[in-house]
Amino acid sequence: SPRNLMYGVPQGSILGQLLFTLFIAPLQDVNSSYNLHSLFSADDFQLYISVKPLTPSVALDLLSDCISAVLNWNTLNKLQTNLRKTDVVHLTSRSRNVCYAA
Question: How do residues 6-54 score in pLDDT, each as one tens digit?
């Protein structure tokens, strides 16, 4: 049945996936402005940053700033963020290369 939407994408519509992709496309610009790598899938995305072992705080500050910008973008665009499903993962290898993912 017809519905009036003020924002967002109608769930379950034939064009829903395409419209949602177009709707969140500017979010990639937010991530790119912080020079972070990202991976989008459905309604989920991941941020990646490589960290130099001697300056991890610089990378963590950058990651934190980007996460704040993403949360702000979501709020401005009427998207909800489930903070209980938001994690930061610290990966390291034997060669001591460090990578953080959010």
Answer: 766 667 778 778 887 888 889 889 988 998 888 887 778 888 888 877 7
Residue 82, phi then psi, degrees to nearest 5: -90, 95
Helix (H), strand (E), coil (C) string for 13-63: CCCHHHHHHHHHCHHHHHHHCCCCEEEEECCEEEEEEEECCCCHHHHHHHH
**Whole-number Å distance between alpha carbons of 90 and 46:** 13
Q: Indicate the pTM of the whole model.
A: 0.73
In this structure, what token pair is assigned to residue 73?
A: 């973008």
Structural contact between residues 33 and 43, judged by C-beta atoms closer than 8 angstroms: no
Cα dihedral 58/64/45/98 (nearest 10):
30
